[in-house]
Amino acid sequence: VQLQASGGGLVQPGGSLRLSCEASGSIFKIDVMAWYRQTPGEQRELVAAQEKGASPMYADSVKGRFTISRDDAKKTVYLDMDSLKSEDSAVYYCKSRVSFVQGIGVTTRDFWGRGTQVTVSS
Prior knowledge:
- By secondary structure, the chain is mostly beta strands.
- Helix content is 0%, strand content 61%.
- It has no helices and 11 strands.
- The strands form 2 sheets. Strands 2, 4, 5, 6, 9, 10 and 11 form a 7-stranded mixed β-sheet that branches. Strands 1-3-8-7 form a 4-stranded antiparallel β-sheet, with no helix packed on it.
- The termini are far apart.
- The model has no long low-confidence stretch (mean pLDDT 96).
C-alpha cells in the first residue's frame, strides 16, 4: 500500500490550494483518511480527518477555511484550503487507516504519504 500526495506549492495570503492523496495497492477498505501538517521544530498536528460515513473533523485553526473530502472509488482524499494564511505554511502529510490483503488474510494499519510543501507568502 502506498499513499501519494500532491498539490502543494507557493500561494499568496488569501489564496487557495487543493491537496490530493491517492492510495494504491491491494486495498480492502479505507476507514479514516486524514491530513496532518508539520513545521520545523514542531510536532506534526492533525489538520482534518474524515472517517468513512461520518462527519469530518477539523482543527480549530482551519475551521471554516479548509474542507476535507474523499472519493472512495478513487481511494483519494482531498484538502481544499481557502483563505490561506502565512501560518498555514508547513509540510502537509496524508494518513489513511487501510485494511489490505496480506497473505490469506486482511491486515489493518495506518499508512503515511510523503509530505507536500505548502508555502503561503507574498
